[in-house]
Structure formats: C-alpha cells, structure tokens
Amino acid sequence: MNFLPLWRYQNQLIDGAIITLELTVISALAGLVIGIAGAVALKGRITPLRWLVRGYIELFRNTPSLIQIFIVFFVLPNFGLKLPAFEAAAVALSLYFGAYSVEIIRAGLDSIPRSQVEAGQCLGLSGWQVFRHIILPPALRNAYPAVTSQFVLLLLGTSLASQVATDELFHVAGFIESRTYRSFEVYAVICAVYFAMAMSFKALFAVIALAAFRWPRRR
Amino acid sequence: MRSFSLIDFVSLFAALRWTVALVVLALLLGAPLALGLALGRISRFAGLRWAMAALIQVIQSVPLLGLLFFFYFGMPVFLGVQVPALIAVTVAYTLYTAAFLGEIWRGGLEAVKQAQWEASACLGLSAWQQFRHIIAPQALRLSLPPTVGFLVQLIKGTSLASILGFVELARAGQVVSAATFQPLLTYALVAAIYFALCLPLTLWSRSLEARLDGSR
Fold it and tell me: Mind telling me how many Å the CA of B122 is from chain A's nearest CA?
C-alpha cells in the first residue's frame, strides 16, 4: 500500500469533485422541477396526464440508472439527439431523480389533512394564501428528510456518469489509476472523498432543518 | 456487423442468471449481517450502538460503485491473494445489503413500543424469547414493505457489477450492443427485463404497505 504517487494528482481530484457537485446540483434542481410539475399533474383532473406521470415514475424507478444513462448517451443519437457526456448524464440523472421526487412531493402534499385547508378557507384566505401559509410549510417539513436523503443518493449516483466518460470524480479515479497503477489506493481515496462530501451535505441539511423548521410538531 | 438474432436474445437471458445469483447471494449473506447490525443499533451498550451506526453511515455514504472497486482491488491487498470477481462483488453487495437492510430493520424494531419488551419480560420470557415471539413479528410487519422496496434497489444495483467486467445482464447488454450495433433494441430489451423483474416487487411492496399499515 502506497498512497504517495497519488499526491501529485490533487488538482485533478479537485476538478473531478467540482464536476461531480455540478452534476449533482443541476440534476437535483431539474429533478425537483420535474417532481413539482409531476406532483401537480398527479393531483390534477386530467386523467391521461396522470397516467403519463404514473408510467414515467414506474419506468424510471424500476430500471437501473446505469441503463438509463446508456440509453440517453448511446440510443438518443439514433433519433438525432446527440448529447455530450456531461449533458447526457445530467438528463438521465434528472429524470431518475425526478421520478423519485414526484412521489416524495406528492406524499408531502398528501400529509396535510383536508380539514386544515377547510379551516384556512373558513378564515377567509384565498386559494394561494391557503397553499402558501397552510399547505406549503408543513408539506416542506414532511418532505424534507426524504428529499435530502434522495439528494445524497443522487450525489453518490453521479459516479455512474463516469461510464459515459463524463470527467467527474469517479472518472478521474480511472485516469489516475491508469497513470499510477495504484488501483486500490486510488479507489480508497475516491471513496473517502465521496464520504466527506456526503457527510458534509448531511450535516448541512441537518443545520438547515434546525433553522428552517423551528415550530413545534404537536401541541 | 451482424443483425440482432436469437442468439443475442439467449445470451441476455443467460446473463440474467448472474444478476439473480448476485441478488440471492447478497440477500443470503447480507440479511444475517443486517439483523446483527439492527440488533447492535438498539443494544444496551452505547459503544456497540455507536460502532454499528458508524459502520452503516460509512457504507451508506460511499457510492456502491466505489464499494465495488474498493473490494475488487482491495481484497488482494488485504488477503495477499487474487480473488475471483464473483467473490469481490459478493462481499461489496453483502455489505451494501447489510447496511441498508440493517437500518430499515432497526427502524422496524424501534417502532415497536418499549412497553412490549417490558410486558414480555414480565411474562418471564427470556431476552431471546421476547425478541423472537413478541418483538420480531411486529417489527417484521412494519419493515416488510421497505425491505421489498430495497430489493428493487439491490436488483438495479447489480447492474454496476458490469463495470468490473462481471458478465450479468447489463454487461451482456453492452456486449450484444457492441456486436450488433443495435443499441436501441438491446438497451430497450435490457431495460425491459429489469423492469419486468422490479415492477412486480414495487407493486407488491405498495400493496403490503396498504395491507400491513403500521398505524392500523
């Protein structure tokens, strides 16, 4: 075991970690937009749209993320949509994250008892005010743990983008390995970097939760 | 270049055996470990609780892909001998399964009220009898739906073994795709096979959740 040869590849590791973070944040934001739109569609009255969203969720939650990335990268060019590696991975991961987000956000909205909405209406609040002040804050708090743990899974899942040569952290590992032949040491270091990033996000989310959701649960 | 033929179809299904084998091995070896982790997490000894929590936290905060590479290249370093890919990936999937199932089962065990332990102790049951006859059946009821849900994650996760060159379904798909230049047909077929494996489990998990509703 010898970690010394890896020392000079610090800059590549940092660049890789930055691309991993970019990929994670972009996919998470796009996925959340899909999630919110999907949850609204699921609550809506248009039946074909509901079926479409259901089909999308089941399709993306029941097939491996790796195959989804392969399909976006290798198959879509057949239909004239040729995406570079980073964009292809971002599209596939957004759709994957989106499928989980729809369910999480829908469950968050469903967690608000109907009677609270009615109570808000009785107080003379408008539809938007009911949503903004009655539904949204507790729904956010209820969905928060699931969204954040899904975010950490997404961060770890971006490692699959290395398989279509996105130069994120895991791909950098392959590069350093090919230069140094210190396979085990490289992957041990890479695992440690992912671990540090995942733990930092978990700590950050815990702090945000403490600050944002201060009101008591029951009274 | 050759066209997609029956033999490609057969090779995908032949590789499916290895996907199933990986899942079965991970469950058989991972489940007892998971039970140990779950019991350690609710143990009376704070040191044990912390150690188990840390172990689970580490495994859950590292990409599955990283775990696979770590053991694939690490086992020869630790053991001093070359091990077959099957053993290395089995170790990685076993630990992955143990960490996630352990955490799910701990949740189930903790959801059973403390008074149930006390009541069964009052009936003169030994610690093992309390667990076996009073706590475990109730915890099982609560943790079965997420356990089945995790099974879907595990099946999808076995596709990563392809990256180490282990020939399971995803790898066979890559090989067939490269040989026939038909990525569309091949990957659609591979995705469909995974979908056919996972969807029934997802639906089963959902119906269990409705039927074994914890809140009753």
Answer: 32
User: With contact defined as beta carbons under 8 Å apart, do A99 and A57 qualify?
Assistant: yes
Domain that holds residue B64: 6-211
By the CB < 8 Å criterion, does B199 face chain A? yes
> In terms of C-beta density within 10 A (0-12 exposed, 13-18 middle, 19 or more buried), how is residue A114 classed?
exposed
CA distance B35 to chain A (A): 22
The reply to whether B195 touches chain A by the CB within 8 Å rule is yes
Confidence of residue B8 (pLDDT cuts 50, 70, 90): confident
Contacts of B195 in chain A (CB under 8 A): 59, 62-63
Q: CA angle B151-B153-B154, nearest 5°?
A: 65
pLDDT by 10s per residue, chain A, length 219: 788 878 888 899 999 999 999 999 999 999 999 999 999 999 889 999 999 999 999 999 999 999 999 999 999 988 888 999 999 999 999 999 999 999 999 999 988 898 999 999 999 999 899 988 888 888 889 999 999 999 999 999 999 999 999 999 999 999 999 999 888 999 999 999 999 999 999 999 999 999 988 887 765
CA distance B65 to B56: 16
Query: How many angstroms separate the CA of residue B204 from the nearest CA in chain A?
Result: 13
Sketch out chain A's domains with CATH numbers. 15-210 (1.10.3720.10)
Q: Which two tokens stand for residue B114?
A: 């403390």
Collect all residues of chain A within an 8 Å Cβ-Cβ radius of residue B194: 62-64, 67
Kindly determine whether residue A62 and residue B183, on different chains, have CB atoms separated by under 8 Å: no
CA dihedral A81→A87→A89→A95, nearest 10 degrees, is: -80
**CATH number of the structural domain spanning residue B93:** 1.10.3720.10
Contact A173 B77 (CB under 8 A): no
Question: Does A160 sit within 8 Å of B191, measured CB to CB?
Answer: no
Which one of A3, A13, A23, A62 would you mutate to disrupt binding with B, by most B Cβ within 10 Å of its Cβ?
Answer: A62
The rounded distance, in Å, linking the Cα atoms of A85 and A23 is 11
Mean pLDDT taken over chain A = 92
Inter-chain residue contact A187 with B70, CB threshold 8 Å: yes
Q: Does residue B2 surpass a pLDDT of 80? A: no
Give the chain B residue whose CA is nearest to the CA of A75: B184
The tokens describing A98, both together, are 């989106």
